[in-house]
């Protein structure tokens, strides 16, 4: 993503061998044992979380045979997640961030445990799954908010890009392994046992958080003075005068709103690409595999200074890859003969499935590059006394934005066709990035060597 200008390299960057400089920088794991333990515990827990993300969608689709019903899982979670982001940010700027992360982890674990129980009891009403998924998503948002605000306190600033890349690898592994296992587990053992695996794996998160030192927020001009409306308005006042931080949220909202075709995966697996649950797992895992591979070769990202420009280019690439996935669905549907139904699904169309996976892998790689730079800008530029609330807003965008995108995709697929959300949404992203490049000139010049909010 660098412009190629030698001045774009981070000052003091070491000259290493070509291969060494290309691979991910693991210095954060070596230099901060606290970060290493947190990273390992979160990595294990995230694999289980991704099992449930896929399993809930498949479960609701099996109960309703409706793509829109799958999208409603996102709608039910959206409101609680938005409130949790703001509340979690205020908590992280008021109380010990370690305790905030621990308490919200307990709530998330109870939610997935309850979902496991009702699945074993054979509950077929969809609303309990919607409600528990919402509780789980809200508590995970608060937990992630506290975790994100902790990282700049246990790592030096120059290692934040490497830490963001490692977190990208963590999520890449989770959303590669988790969905792939989910498809196999659901097909082989059923939904309840799949949820149970998540409940067991989630206990690793407690180990990582318990090992952290106390991380109390610093007091400053933007310090939180409570958990109510005043804390939110204070953070919004800061954001109004922080154009670079604000841009990270706006750019990501564009990508997540118009580039989330995942709710069509169950129907695509049955009606277009074939393969049902295993295909859904493969499509979801392909996106994650792209993110993982880009993380493994993320060494050069730590030397990029024009990080705003890199965010813009990465999201532009994301839109192109998303649109290509839509083209695959459109062409495959157009050339098929015969009619498939959820009860009589189509056999796997291997060429189309492979092309769809390649397109989604490209989208995942682009999304990960964008996430590395957006995370770094936020953590480096936001002062500590408002960092929790900015992380809360970050998680609202990162976790809530895709749910708005799920609703958009579900509605568009219901009105037009399965290919429409990806193709139309991807083209909208490309057009908006061209506009944003011209409108947000200052963001394009953001310099990592002198971070300014």
UniProtKB/TrEMBL annotation:
Keyword check for Amino-acid biosynthesis: no
Residue spans crossing the bilayer: 38-62, 68-87, 99-123, 129-150, 162-186, 192-212, 277-298, 310-332, 352-373, 393-416, 422-440
Membrane disposition: Multi-pass membrane protein
InterPro entries: MFS_dom, MFS_trans_sf, TM_effector
Cellular compartment(s): Cell inner membrane
SUPFAM superfamilies, sorted: MFS general substrate transporter (SSF103473)
Primary localization: membrane
Gene Ontology MF: a single term: transmembrane transporter activity
All residue ranges annotated as the Major facilitator superfamily (MFS) profile domain in the record: 197-453
Keywords: Cell membrane, Membrane, Transmembrane, Transmembrane helix, Transport
Gene Ontology CC annotations of this record: plasma membrane
Protein name (database record): MFS transporter
Organism: Leucobacter tardus
């Amino acid at each position: 993503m660098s412009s190629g200008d030698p001045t774009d390299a981070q000052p003091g960057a070491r000259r290493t061998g070509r291969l060494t400089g290309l691979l991910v920088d693991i210095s954060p794991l070596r230099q901060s044992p606290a970060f290493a333990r947190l990273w390992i515990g979160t990595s294990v827990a995230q694999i289980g979380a991704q099992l449930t993300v896929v399993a809930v969608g498949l479960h609701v689709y099996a109960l309703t045979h409706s793509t829109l019903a799958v999208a409603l899982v996102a709608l039910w979670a959206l409101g609680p997640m938005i409130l949790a982001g703001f509340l979690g940010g205020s908590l992280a700027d008021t109380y010990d961030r370690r305790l905030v992360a621990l308490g919200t982890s307990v709530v998330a674990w109870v939610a997935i445990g309850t979902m496991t129980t009702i699945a074993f009891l054979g509950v077929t009403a969809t609303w309990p799954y919607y409600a528990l998924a919402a509780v789980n998503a809200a508590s995970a948002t608060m937990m992630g908010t506290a975790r994100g605000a902790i990282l700049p306190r246990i790592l030096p600033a120059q290692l934040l890009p490497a830490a963001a890349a490692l977190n990208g690898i963590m999520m890449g592994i989770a959303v590669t392994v988790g969905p792939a296992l989910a498809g196999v587990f659901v097909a082989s053992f059923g939904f309840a046992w799949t949820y149970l695996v998540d409940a067991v794996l989630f206990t690793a998160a407690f180990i990582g958080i318990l090992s952290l030192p106390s991380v109390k927020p610093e007091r400053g001009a933007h310090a939180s003075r409570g958990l109510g409306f005043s804390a939110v308005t204070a953070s919004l006042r800061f954001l109004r005068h922080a154009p670079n931080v604000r841009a990270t949220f706006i750019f990501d909202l564009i990508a997540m709103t118009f580039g989330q075709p995942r709710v069509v995966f169950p129907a695509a697996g049955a009606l277009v690409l074939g393969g049902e649950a295993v295909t859904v797992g493969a499509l979801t895992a392909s996106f994650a595999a792209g993110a993982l591979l880009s993380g493994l070769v993320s060494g050069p990202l730590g030397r990029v200074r024009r990080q705003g420009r890199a965010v813009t280019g990465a999201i532009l690439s994301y839109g192109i890859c998303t649109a290509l996935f839509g083209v695959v669905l459109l062409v495959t549907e157009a050339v098929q003969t015969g009619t498939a139904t959820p009860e009589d699904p189509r056999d796997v169309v291997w060429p189309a499935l492979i092309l769809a996976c390649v397109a989604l892998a490209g989208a995942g790689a682009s999304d990960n590059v964008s996430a590395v730079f957006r995370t770094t800008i936020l953590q480096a530029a936001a002062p500590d006394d408002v960092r929790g609330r900015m992380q809360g807003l970050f998680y609202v965008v990162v976790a809530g934005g895709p749910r708005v995108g799920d609703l958009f995709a579900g509605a568009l697929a219901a009105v037009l066709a399965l290919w429409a959300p990806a193709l139309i949404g991807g083209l909208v992203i490309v057009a908006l990035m061209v506009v944003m490049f011209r409108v947000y000139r200052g963001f394009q010049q953001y310099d990592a060597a002198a971070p300014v909010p």
